[in-house]
């Protein structure tokens, strides 16, 4: 077992060393040949959205649906969930609701629910660009990232809830967020909202998101959803995966812009966080991907702990169990299931939000 661990470390070092050469510039041509202004970073909005990206991990569906969970306060207090979607078969979860303080519909997707985040990270090294993105010449993505949103119960549930919100609140902004794998799904959702529903006012902000497609896809995404921010944290390993190889710019994964890199400077107790807004390449070598000669980088991109906390907010599951959920029978009455047992809990946004005594001893059934 110990030898296997050393082998994995050696392979990882070789991958980063191979990807530390000078970057080749790629020009991508496709139908949407328009120039868009890069997204503007809003620190206050980021501090709010990271709490939504954290809350969606909660397994107590009663507290999540009624927005009374331990992560459902502070900057997100008063949020009203319209629809909570749980794809039980694939262990996926997301919600759609309205934040009146932001005057926006907020959509959040949960990240990986693997028992071992280490195993999931190791698996990211070997994910291949294996399907063409529909309708875009040369654009490729990984089928796992693509199907997690497009071929599950999440997509119809989200689109239905967005239409519900629009009927009540009109054409307010739609903000999509998520952490880790949830960030990948948020990106595909933002693109889908623009293309399928024709929504014009769509904003995407993700945290610790992996790469999801090649350079052609990244260029296309930036032109369709220009108001997009990817927040990366210090040495977080996940934004560096799947690997990016400079020598194969058309065949390798490539991030879309715009990255905002969080890193700490100072000594001892005099430490504060810098929020660096990166360039429009998606792979800014002066941000989280920066490399110094011989790969002696101040940013090695090797930290799982940096992946599990953004702006001091805990990301990931509230407990170690995988795909476990708790639900009060009274909330279950608002839900429906499909043939695979996937669950959608929804309410009419024009009616008052459900009120439950979530402090009582009976927390409902565990699934």
Automatic annotation (TrEMBL):
Classification via Pfam families: Lipase_3
Residue intervals of the Fungal lipase-type domain: 106-244
Protein name, UniProt field: Fungal lipase-type domain-containing protein
Taxonomy, superkingdom: Eukaryota
Keyword Hydrolase: yes
Taxonomic source organism: Rehmannia glutinosa (Chinese foxglove)
Keyword Zinc-finger listed: no
Keywords: Hydrolase, Signal
CDD domains: Lipase_3
Signal peptide: 1-21
